Amino acid sequence: MGYRTTIAWEPAVVNRRTILLFGWLLTFGGQTMAREIDGLEEGFADSNGVKIHYVTKGKGPLIVLIHGFPEFWYSWRNQIDPLSEHFKVVAIDMRGYNKSDQPEGAEHYAMRLLVGDVKAVIQHFGEEKAIVVGHDWGGMVAWSFAMFHPEMTEKLIILNLPHPKGFSRELATNSEQQ
């Protein structure tokens, strides 16, 4: 005898449950996840009145981890422990995500402000420069940070994003990307 499962597809129920689960994760998920990593500390850096949430662990040269879309600091959970053996690791929640402030209006999410948030985090830790790591949309923020603040960029590591010149070229010339 085999085991058989029948799933009834009810889009309204699935959508409602999915939305409720997603809402619960956004509301409470970040509060409990920080406890999963021993020695992890949480805090906020001020970026011109916008609170930028971060988690940190370790000692040594500063490394700032910038998440992609639609993630938050927790996407770096598997990298924090190993990196913290040699670095002071700071994984941020970009503005608009998780516990960071979520100002209303698209004008509050301009690239210059996102770059300013990274600068504020580095200065919050009393450092003049940092190793900056960005994934996905965080990679675009990291590229921009390095271009606007090369004096504060010790090293730049980008995951899953091309150089901005290639990115712009594809957006302008590739109809599938428009």
Topology summary:
Blueprint: H1 11-33, E1 41-47, E2 50-57, E3 62-66, H2 77-84, E4 88-92, H3 111-124, E5 130-135, H4 137-148, E6 153-159, H5 164-173
Parallel strand pairs: 3-4, 3-5, 5-6
Antiparallel strand pairs: 1-2, 2-4
Textual characterization of the structure:
By secondary structure, the protein is α/β, with parallel strands linked by helices. It has one domain: Rossmann fold, CATH 3.40.50. It has helices at residues 11-33, 77-84, 111-124, 137-148, 164-173, and strands spanning 41-47, 50-57, 62-66, 88-92, 130-135, 153-159. Strands 1-2-4-3-5-6 form a 6-stranded mixed β-sheet, with helices on both faces. Helix 3 (111-124) crosses helix 4. The protein starts with 10 loop residues before the first helix and ends in a 5-residue tail after the last helix. Residues 1-14 have low confidence and may be disordered.
Task: Please summarize what this structure is.
38% of the residues lie in helices and 21% in strands. It is α/β, with parallel strands linked by helices. The protein has one domain: Rossmann fold (3-Layer(aba) Sandwich), CATH 3.40.50.1820.
